[in-house]
Design brief:
It is a multi-pass membrane protein. One of its GO terms (molecular function) is ATP binding. One of its GO terms (cellular component) is plasma membrane. The protein is built from 25 helices and 26 strands. It is an alpha+beta fold. The relative contact order is 0.11.
Length: 675
């Protein structure tokens, strides 16, 4: 079978082949004709039928049984290359030459039958693409001036609003404008429980609306929807070869040539050196050729790897290539980001304090008692005013603490002033100009580095307060105002993030699976990180890290362990994800960065899928080992039997094709892993 070509065909032909399989049906018909021709020739020779009947039956068996093998051989010659198919054609013709037409017909029948079964195995493992394509509706009920119009999804523009009723499959990605409902996202994320949706929530194409009507504003073109991107990812994953498969691809040509060389020697040596007669010598050489052909070896890897990719997809887990399945199976150390990975990522502002003596001028300037200008009218800095000023600066930042600050200000319906000159110091803090004055918002490292050489009124008071808050597991930052070049601590903000409900159980399961080391790499402060690690039972904690500093710790882990996995949200963790042996992204259903940067994506944003990912990878590796044992073992046994006892060609054919079918079916067992 030309496994290589079957695995690297282009996307459109694969999708067409999945929705309409006439080629497979044609192969089945050819196999049936080959079987009938083989049986007809054998029975005809037994009952003394006319020779034209016997040879007509065998002729049909040879033509239809060898049709696809000849096609693939001709295609390979043009490269130029020699495929396994050519070995089988030569062996069948050799059997015919020595007046053993039944053995040749039997070889072609079993070879073509195993080819159909291999195609079935690969087709089953690729059925994820077909099911994903079928999940996408062709039209949407677009709302225009209060009236609904059925519109093909390719004609729906970003910004249009469509209506989804209970039981409808959602056609496009968008955000809920009106209505409340629950949505079954299991087909996309693997979540078994429907997810509540209300105005402002994201919604994804291919999922099913359950209980209420929704009006949804389109946010992505059809080709950029979560479902479309997932389809592309699955397609690409199935084309990326695992390391073992890459090795086999490189060895296939020399192996096939080696089999031909062995066959020639098996003919020449006995005849030239031992004076054996031609017919039995040639018969044994053909038997050796069949037995040594590597069909089962070649199909071992794709049968297992593609099945594992499909099994993971049904569980909300996307492997972006076969190589990642093999690597994940070797993982013995896991590094976690904290925020958004071990925690929910829904950081909330929990405490807000102004420093005694801080004032704000009525024209927007910021002062303290030490810097107060008597020419300005001032008032004490209130908590709401401090929050509004902090939100003005943070509104320009995408950091999770900044988002929590702005959200808290909006919840209090505060008037957030404009800000200009925004600058961010990664991992430390930000600054901007508000009302003509400069505001700095940062952690103690910001104060110790960016403002190291500056006098700050209330520095120790603010730092002491921050340390006390961090002692309780809260992340804290200082708000520092700058007036006429003089700095003053205005107050401080404290934030908390909820640990994921499944984080502790996930870490326990990873330990049960044999993961030797679990570490946390975070940019958060030491006390908050230690507090989280103690609750989860993490081995090592490295806190207050800049994104690039995480690389050093990943590389240190790689020196001590076979394979290191990094789990993160795909945003600030990109350098560490790229460095790790295997990168795992959270929340792939709606997160562009996770889909693009990670090797494995947890589509449902659930850590509990992580132990399944490693378990599936290890099962796939074990399946590969079993397949190789079957394939190489069958070859070794048959070669020994041929040389020692003269194993007949029919038994070699059965052993060769039987092992090929067996490894295919063994690989298919992975499709049900975790069900």
């Amino acid at each position: 079978m030309d496994v290589s070509s079957s695995l690297t065909s282009n996307t459109s032909s694969r999708l067409a082949g999945l929705t309409d399989r006439p080629e497979i049906l044609r192969q089945v018909v050819f196999v049936a004709i080959t079987l009938l021709g083989m049986i007809g020739g054998l029975v005809g020779s037994w009952v003394g039928a006319p020779s034209w009947v016997v040879w007509g039956c065998y002729g049909a068996a040879y033509v239809f049984g060898g049709w696809y093998g000849i096609k693939e051989s001709i295609k390979a010659f043009r490269e130029p290359a020699i495929e396994i198919d050519f070995l089988m054609i030569v062996a069948a013709l050799g059997a015919l030459y020595i007046d053993a037409p039944f053995e040749g017909a039997m070889l072609l029948f079993l070879f073509s039958l195993s080819g159909v079964l291999e195609e079935y195995a690969i087709g089953r493992s690729r059925s994820a693409i077909k099911s994903l394509v079928e999940m996408r509706p062709e039209s949407a009920q677009v709302l225009d001036d209060g009236e609904e119009t059925e519109t093909h999804i390719d004609e729906v523009a970003v910004g249009d609003v469509f209506v989804v009723r209970p039981g409808d499959r959602i056609p496009l990605d968008g955000v809920v404008e009106a209505g409340e409902s629950t949505v079954d996202q299991s087909s996309l994320t693997g979540e078994s429980v429907p997810v509540p949706k209300e105005p402002g929530d994201d919604i994804f194409s291919g999922t099913i609306n359950e209980s209420g009507s929704l009006e949804v504003r389109v946010t992505r073109e059809p080709d950029e929807s979560a479902l479309s991107r997932l389809i592309r990812m699955v397609e690409e994953a199935q084309e990326k070869r695992a390391p073992t498969q890459q090795l086999l691809d490189r060895l296939e040509q020399p192996y096939v040539l080696g089999v031909f060389a062995m066959t020639i020697l098996a003919i020449a040596v006995p005849m030239v050196l031992l004076n054996h007669t031609f017919e039995p010598t040639f018969y044994r050489a053909m038997t050796l050729m069949v037995a040594a052909s590597p069909c089962a070896i070649i199909i071992s890897t794709p049968a297992a790897v593609l099945s594992a990719i499909s099994a993971g997809g049904r569980q909300g887990l996307l492997f972006k290539g076969g190589e990642h399945i093999e690597t994940a199976g070797n993982t013995d150390a896991v590094a976690f980001d904290k925020t958004g990975t071990l925690t929910e990522g829904n950081t909330r502002l929990t405490e807000l304090h102004t420093r005694d003596g801080a004032h704000v001028s009525t024209d927007g300037g910021i002062q303290s008692d030490a810097t107060e200008d008597s020419t300005r009218a001032t008032e004490s800095l209130t908590a709401d005013r401090l929050l509004a000023l902090a939100a003005a600066v943070q509104s320009r930042s995408e950091h999770h603490l900044a988002e929590a600050t702005v959200e808290a200000a909006n919840e209090r319906s505060l008037d957030i002033p404009g800000a200009s000159g925004f600058e961010a110091v990664v991992g430390k803090g930000v600054r901007a100009t508000v009302g003509g004055q400069t505001l700095h918002i940062g952690n103690p490292r910001y104060v110790a580095t960016v403002l190291a050489d500056r006098d700050i009124d209330g520095r120790e008071t603010g730092l002491d307060a921050v340390r006390d808050l961090e002692q309780n597991g809260e992340t804290s930052v200082l708000v520092i105002g700058e007036v006429d070049g003089r700095l003053s601590v205005l107050g401080w903000l404290a934030f908390t993030d909820t640990i994921r409900s499944d984080a502790k159980e996930t870490i326990d399961q990873l330990r049960d699976q044999g993961i030797e080391k679990i570490v946390m790499l975070t940019g958060d402060n030491e006390r908050v990180a230690q507090h989280t690690a103690e609750e989860l039972g993490i081995d090592e904690v490295y806190a207050e890290l800049l994104p690039e500093e995480k690389i050093d710790h990943i590389e240190a882990l790689q020196e001590r362990h076979e394979a290191v996995a990094m789990v993160g949200d795909g945003v600030n963790d990109a350098p560490a994800l790229a460095t790790a042996d295997i990168s795992i992204g959270m929340g792939g259903a709606g997160t562009d960065v996770a889909l693009e940067t990670a090797d494995i994506v947890l589509m449902s944003d659930k850590l509990s899928r992580l132990p399944y990912a490693f378990a599936l990878s290890r099962k796939a590796r074990r399946t590969l080992h079993v397949n190789f044992a079957i394939a190489f073992g069958a070859i070794a046994i048959m070669l020994t039997a041929i040389l020692a006892t003269g194993l007949p060609l029919p038994l070699a054919v059965v052993g060769h094709e039987g092992s090929t079918v067996l490894v295919s079916l063994n690989g298919l067992r992975l499709l049900r892993f975790g069900d």
